[in-house]
């Protein structure tokens, strides 16, 4: 059972949410702490009590994006479970994250800022790349078990993830399209897995 957030925690979250909204609309450089305070419904002093600078506030957004990606439970390769079943499980977890509205908001801010100031978002890009390495480890384990031998262990996980993001991430982040409905999610996940297996087997 989740306990209600304390007032100070609610204010902190309101500030982060307001920053996400303002960074999305105006960009990092054009967003002031005054505007964030107004959107959050708190005083500017309260904002600075939680985040001494705008850079620290942006760092918190990146931290939450990282935590969202890490919330996915790691799924090790299981030789007793059929390939298709394991891949479907992997991609459904990925799909759930990519279609989460809060994750998408965080990603929009981080990606937009990485275009204007690559160094500011470089740490996050590096961290998310490490997260993708879990899929590489899974694939290498499958290949050691004599499965998916045609797949390149470096390229294949990127291909698998990229196919999913083509439909379930980039249109939502860059074109502000709505999340996929349940039926379309199912089609995308199953088609991605079946295409991958046809390539890798």
From TrEMBL:
<dbReference type="InterPro" id="IPR039536">
    <property type="entry name" value="TetR_C_Proteobacteria"/>
</dbReference>
<dbReference type="InterPro" id="IPR009057">
    <property type="entry name" value="Homeodomain-like_sf"/>
</dbReference>
<dbReference type="Pfam" id="PF14246">
    <property type="entry name" value="TetR_C_7"/>
</dbReference>
<keyword id="KW-0805">Transcription regulation</keyword>
<keyword id="KW-0678">Repressor</keyword>
<feature type="domain" description="HTH tetR-type">
    <location>
        <begin position="9"/>
        <end position="69"/>
    </location>
</feature>
<keyword id="KW-0804">Transcription</keyword>
<dbReference type="InterPro" id="IPR001647">
    <property type="entry name" value="HTH_TetR"/>
</dbReference>
<dbReference type="InterPro" id="IPR050109">
    <property type="entry name" value="HTH-type_TetR-like_transc_reg"/>
</dbReference>
<protein>
    <submittedName>
        <fullName>TetR family transcriptional regulator</fullName>
    </submittedName>
</protein>
<dbReference type="Pfam" id="PF00440">
    <property type="entry name" value="TetR_N"/>
</dbReference>
<feature type="DNA-binding region" description="H-T-H motif">
    <location>
        <begin position="32"/>
        <end position="51"/>
    </location>
</feature>
<dbReference type="GO" id="GO:0000976">
    <property type="term" value="F:transcription cis-regulatory region binding"/>
</dbReference>
<keyword id="KW-0238">DNA-binding</keyword>
<dbReference type="InterPro" id="IPR023772">
    <property type="entry name" value="DNA-bd_HTH_TetR-type_CS"/>
</dbReference>
<dbReference type="GO" id="GO:0003700">
    <property type="term" value="F:DNA-binding transcription factor activity"/>
</dbReference>
<dbReference type="InterPro" id="IPR036271">
    <property type="entry name" value="Tet_transcr_reg_TetR-rel_C_sf"/>
</dbReference>
């Amino acid at each position: 059972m989740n306990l209600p957030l304390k007032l100070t925690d609610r204010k902190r979250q309101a500030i982060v949410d307001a920053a996400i909204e303002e960074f999305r609309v105006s960009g990092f450089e054009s967003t002031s702490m005054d505007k964030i305070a107004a959107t959050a419904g708190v005083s500017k002093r309260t904002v600075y009590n939680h985040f001494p600078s705008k850079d620290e506030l942006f760092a918190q957004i990146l931290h939450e994006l990282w935590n969202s990606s890490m919330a996915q439970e790691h799924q090790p390769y299981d030789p007793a479970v059929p390939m298709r079943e394991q891949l479907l499980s992997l991609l459904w977890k990925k799909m759930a994250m990519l279609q989460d509205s809060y994750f998408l908001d965080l990603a929009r801010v981080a990606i937009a800022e990485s275009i204007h100031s690559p160094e500011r978002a470089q740490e996050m890009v590096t961290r998310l790349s490490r997260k993708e390495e879990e899929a590489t480890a899974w694939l290498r384990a499958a290949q050691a078990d004599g499965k998916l031998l045609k797949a390149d262990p470096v390229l294949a996980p990127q291909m698998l993830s990229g196919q999913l993001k083509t439909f379930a991430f980039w249109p939502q982040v860059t074109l502000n399209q709505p999340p996929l409905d349940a039926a379309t999610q199912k089609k995308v996940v199953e088609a991605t897995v079946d295409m991958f297996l046809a390539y890798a087997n």
